[in-house]
Amino acid sequence: MLHTLAVLVENNPGVLIRVAGLFTRRGYNIDSLTVCQTEDPELSRMTIVVNGDDQIIEQVRNQLSKLVVVHSVSDLTGESVVDRELALIRVQVSTETRSAVLQTVDIFRGRVVDMGRTNITVELTGDIPKIDAFVHAIQPYGLLELVRTGKVAILRSEA
Amino acid sequence: MSEERTGIKGATILLNALQQEGVDVIFGYPGGVLLPLYDALLDSPIRHVLGRHEQGVVFAADGYSRVTGKVGVCLGTSGPGATNLVTGIANAFLDSIPLVVLTGQVSTGSIGSDSFQEVDIIGITMPITKHSYLVKDPRDLPRIVKEAFYIARTGRPGPVLIDLPKDVLAQENVVPFSNEMKLKGYKVFGQANNGKIEEVAKVLSESRKPVLYAGGGVVTAGAEDVLRLFADKTAVPVVTTLMGIGSLPLEHPNSLGMVGMHGTVTANYAVDDCDLLIAVGVRFDDRVTSGMGHRFATKAKVIHIDIDPVEISKVVKTEIQIVGDARQVLAEILEALPGFANPDVTDWWNQLRDWRKKNTIQYDKDRLTPPMVMECLGEIAGGDTIVTTDVGQHQMWAAQYYPTVNPRNYATSSGLGVMGYGLPAAIGAQIARPKDKVVLITGDGSFQMSIQELGTIAQNKLPVKIILLNNGVLGMVRQMQKMFYNERYSQIELQGNPDFVKVAEAYGIRGISVNSPEQVRGAIEEAFKHPGPVLVDITISEHENVLPMVPPGKDITEMIVR
Predict the structure, then answer these.
(1) CB A68 to CB B309 under 8 A?
(2) What is the reported pLDDT for A25?
(3) Is-catalytic flag, B54?
(4) B117 flagged as catalytic
(5) Which of B88, B69, B68 shows the shortest CA–CA distance to B28?
(6) Domain residues of chain A, as ranges?
(7) Residue ranges of the ACT domain (chain A) (predicted)?
(8) Which one is the CATH code of A84-150: 3.40.50.1980, 3.90.1150.10, 2.40.50.140, 3.30.70.1150?
(9) I need a surface site. Which of B89, B131, B273, B429 has the fewest CB within 10 A?
(10) In a 3-state reduction of DSSP, which class is residue B21?
(11) How, if at all, do strands B210-214 and B255-258 pair?
């Protein structure tokens, strides 16, 4: 099962390699990893999506917590969270397909951010199933290139 | 005017910070980028012990740490100096030994340019250090040194590396920053969980076949006295790991000896048959479980007490988990015990005694055998002598037969199993505790991996006694080729062996040769009478095997006993 871990780490050179190295060394698989500075410039926030059963996830959490550069680890899986991913997708278009492609982009509330003679680039934000669904829908027209950021997530505020 | 205000050299700031941490000795080996540090060392009260190879200095620092409980400090230059430390760092990491490893590095401006004697030692050692620092500004040294020692010795101890670029050491007129630690991300687990303590006491009281399985965590926590009280009070039998040797002496009535691959028959049967396994400061290593956690102690409820949450349920499914310091948790359990009835273990002890009676391995006392040497050595040297060992058959014979009574008197490479550890570890131990007797138990294979350190022994006049079990082969490999590879012996003969007595004498060390059983006692007695270092070269047969032995992939009850 996929778990989303929110990991607060020191914002220093070498931190990413410590975290990534841990995953390689212990044989855990990273599905996606995003990292950026937080509101506190001394800290970075990593959102790591990792696959594994409960016992493996427990190990991953404990191993991460052990790193001196890791301040906290929380498993957002099963919690009430807002999660988003950004994707940039280049799609082939011709005079025949152009309007259908644009319609699809519209349905998914994407934005066209670049336009060439034979292709357009779409910016799409959403949770992972939405992006997957868009990729699936657009594929028949000719998917030329796809870049995804990986998931970022934050806990919902209490009601 | 104070030093701080006028500013001092980077290397001096480092040495002052080490002194503040109570460092009295550094085991090291100089080199180009360390020149500023070795220069400053001339004006420092810290003693420096010069090894003959960087691997020797890190093992010596490790031995120093094991016999004192203090943080060991070693130093190597950049490039090859640093890479030669790697095996020793891995050894300390696997056995959770607190070390601060100092490495030289090329100047900050040259890092990354493949300059002379440059390696990325932080990158190389990342998986085998608890933490590491590259010092870029000498003003950070007081804080970094303080943090490094704190991280090394607290929680589950381990090696911490500080990489020191030459310009950082050489910079003059430095006014250091404060040494206040900034370790928001570092967590130490020490608080026991009270609800669970009661649960342990209750489960123990209901148990009929309990076993306590003690490991290195008991030694780290200094919990051997509490363990003994616990054993005395509850009559629970105790097995130990290799790392836990001495935490309950072999002659204690509750001791069943070592468990695992070369453990005693009784200890292995007991763990297999018990209904409650209290695992304290252990990690269910594959040398204990035969690599099969799911088939280990299957009839038992397992209670796991360890300071490292990562170890809990890593290998074996456990019913009660307590994250905390072994001494503290055992003490709390002891306090909770009076509220519950003592477990009725009469039948269990009858069973254990019966197993012991039927399965104690007898050896021929008239032949020159390793067990006979170990027992004779134990009688003469005594249980309070510091023992270091190398790795191989002799290590297991020492573990099985040497009557250690204090776990801080025993240093052996357990997790990494690194040959060549014993001699430098004996050096570290003797430097740490100059008044105590130190004996190295080694084999002819291991000994030659660190034989150059005889120079360090000679230079420092260290009265280490070296008991060399010499069978002319790589005995443990031979034993496994005999048992599991149809006696197809491959690359085990050490035909080029030197005359070890002559080698010792060439270093100015007394050498004694032993070839017959009647010479053993006299030679060992003579070695201990002699005030200086002595090497006793004891010829044993290559046909001697370490027994019992659990073959790889077999349950721990399926032992080869003859």
Answers:
(1) no
(2) 87
(3) yes
(4) yes
(5) B88
(6) 2-75, 84-150
(7) 4-78
(8) 3.30.70.1150
(9) B273
(10) coil
(11) unpaired
Q: What angle do CA B441, B390, B480 make, to 5 degrees?
A: 110
- One digit per residue, the tens of pLDDT, for chain A of length 159 reads 899 999 999 998 889 999 999 998 888 889 999 999 999 999 999 999 999 998 889 999 999 999 999 999 999 998 899 999 999 999 999 999 999 999 999 999 999 999 999 999 999 999 999 999 999 999 999 999 999 999 999 999 876
Cβ-Cβ contacts under 8 Å between A and B: the total is 35
Task: Please state the ipTM of this predicted complex.
Answer: 0.84
A84-150 and A2-75 share a CATH fold: yes
B194-359 and B370-539, same CATH topology:
yes
In this structure, what token pair is assigned to residue B498?
Answer: 């030197």
Domain boundaries defined on chain B: 10-170, 194-359, 370-539
Query: Quick check: helix, strand or coil at residue B8?
Result: strand
The domain made up of B10-170 has a fold known as Rossmann fold (3.40.50)
* Separation between Cα atoms, residue A67 and residue A10, nearest integer Å: 11
Q: Which tokens sit at B420? A: 């060549």
* The CATH number of the domain covering residues in B370-539: 3.40.50.970
Q: CA angle, corner B439, sides to B435 and B441, nearest 5?
A: 165
| CB-based contact B306:B283 (threshold 8 Å) | yes
The chain A residue lying nearest B147, using CA atoms, is A68
* B 176-215 residues with CB < 8 A to A: 183-187
Looking at residue B293, its amino acid is G
CA distance B129 to chain A (A): 10
Q: What is the DSSP secondary-structure string of A140-159? A: HHHEEEEEE---EEEEPPP-
Quickly name the fold that domain A2-75 has: Alpha-Beta Plaits (3.30.70)
Residue at B40: amino acid letter: A
* Contacts with A17 from chain B: Cβ below 8 Å: 123, 126
Å between A75 CA and nearest CA of chain B: 16
CA distance B545 to chain A (A): 35
Residue with tokens 């871990």: A5
CB atoms within 10 A of CB B306: 27
Has B70 been annotated as catalytic? no
The residue from B9, B166, B196, B209 that is catalytic is: B166
Among B126, B131, B309, the residue with its CB nearest the CB of A21 is B126
Q: Which of B9, B21, B27, B54 is catalytic?
A: B54
pLDDT in tens, B317-366: 899 999 999 999 999 999 999 999 999 999 999 999 999 999 887 888 78
* A68-90 as b/e: b if 16+ CB within 10 A: bbbbebebbeeeeeeeebbbbbb
What is the C-alpha to C-alpha distance for residues B408 and B391, in angstroms, rounded to an integer? Answer: 18
Structure tokens belonging to residue B294: 């799911």
Which residue intervals of B360-474 are DSSP H helices?
370-381, 393-401, 422-432, 444-447, 454-459
Nearest to A59 among B183, B186, B314 (CB): B314
Question: Considering the entire predicted model, what is its pTM?
Answer: 0.94
DSSP string across B498-519? --HHHHHHHTT-EEEEE-SHHH
Give me the sign of the Cα torsion angle B517, B518, B519, B524. positive
On the CB side of B71, CA atoms within 13 Å amount to 28
